[in-house]
Amino acid sequence: MFARRNLKSVVILLSTMLTCAAFAQSEVSTPTIIIFLDDQPLIIPIVKPTTAIEETSFNGLVIDDFESGLRESCSSIDPPNKYFFNHYDGIGGGEEAISTIEVHSGSQSFEEMLTESADKSNFQFRPTGCSGITSYMRERIVDTDEWQLDTYNRLRFWLKAPPGTTQAGNGNDNMHFGTYTRSTTTRTNTYESDGGHWYHHYNIPYTGEWHQIIVDWHPNSKRGVSGSTEHGEKQYPTDELGYNYFDLLTRFYVQIHEDFPVGTRIYFDDFEVYEETRVENVNQVYSLNGVYVPSTNDLIVGWNRDKNQNDLTHEVRYAFQDIHTLGFDNATFAINARPLGWQGYNGMEWRISSLDLSGQTTIYVAIKPANSDLFRQIEIPLGIN
């Protein structure tokens, strides 16, 4: 038996230990502590705190981070098609390699070096084996066994663009992420079905830093269709419920529209898919991307708007915590961004160098069209890579 004078400290100690255990369980009944005082049971209920604690988790998979080098798709042929990630020789010449000098995270990244002059670069992921069968991307990623169908709604990677990369004006783009989608009933010796070749447009500058590129299921254009056409979200591009855009993606590539000289090197790292569980405005704000440049204090965020909303402004706000948790109205107002071009020239941008970012590690930027209550958010690290 514990002496009466020590009872309070014993209860506090047991409450602390059992509360932690109780909160880790999901039982309906209220957890209790039973203490015997003078041989009589004393039942003390443990009540959970009334303050809600939001728990967030990252549900994503690595496509490739290049920490295992260049993974082979067909070992019996010569590069570039020997590897899943390679330089597409259909547009100029190039060589693929692993870099240990320029890395976004870890110790290695992908390096594309141009060996011939061309009016664009072309880096690709090509999941085609020796037999000519093209797999779905999800079948040839690093974390293949963990893929969950109809789950992932974002694809992200990091790009270090070379000197000479110049932005286009008037809402135009200088880079696109090309994709191919194929139905589950289409033959496997092709990339696509029903003309499923899509383009996601970006307009990125040269900064010397790693630029974050986010791909969603809202393409900017489609092969053979007028560039002024607004396609909207393509969550199920083949109308097969249970198989979304990223489930059906086969080959993809990154093309920068620039006449780079021979010897130019372009770096890629940390390709991944993930699930954004918060409801965001992908319909009106898509192809989100951003970068921070420590040497100039430049923060640059780019995105595309609905092509048919040529006069609609987008309100931009920022904070140093997640705006989904903070609330859009509680974030700091930055600007009402106006369209830079007309119809198919639908790129938008917010650039600023006057923010006091000292002591901060991350900035969150939210974009909300004037006629909507929903926004998109991008999280940009402020450290030096």
Give an overview in words.
The structure is a single chain. With 385 residues, the chain is mainly beta. The chain has 3 domains: 4-45, no CATH class; 60-277, Sandwich (Jelly Rolls), CATH 2.60.120.260; 283-385, Immunoglobulin-like (Sandwich), CATH 2.60.40. It has 2 helices and 21 strands. It has helices spanning 7-23, 323-326, and strands spanning 32-37, 40-45, 60-64, 85-87, 94-99, 109-114, 123-125, 154-160, 175-181, 197-202, 211-215, 221-222, 249-256, 265-274, 285-293, 298-305, 314-319, 332-337, 347-352, 362-369, 376-381. Strands 3, 5, 6, 8, 11, 14, 15, 16 and 19 form a 9-stranded antiparallel sheet that branches. The chain has a 6-stranded antiparallel sheet with strand order 4-7-13-9-10-12, with no helix packed on it. A hairpin with a 2-residue loop joins strand 1 and strand 2 (40-45). The longest helix is centred in the N-terminal third of the chain and has 17 residues, at 7-23. 35% of the residues are buried. Residues 1-32 and 45-56 have low confidence and may be disordered.
Sum up the structure in keywords:
single chain; 385 residues; mainly beta; Jelly Rolls; Immunoglobulin-like; 3 domains; 9-stranded antiparallel beta sheet; 6-stranded antiparallel beta sheet; 2 helices; 21 strands
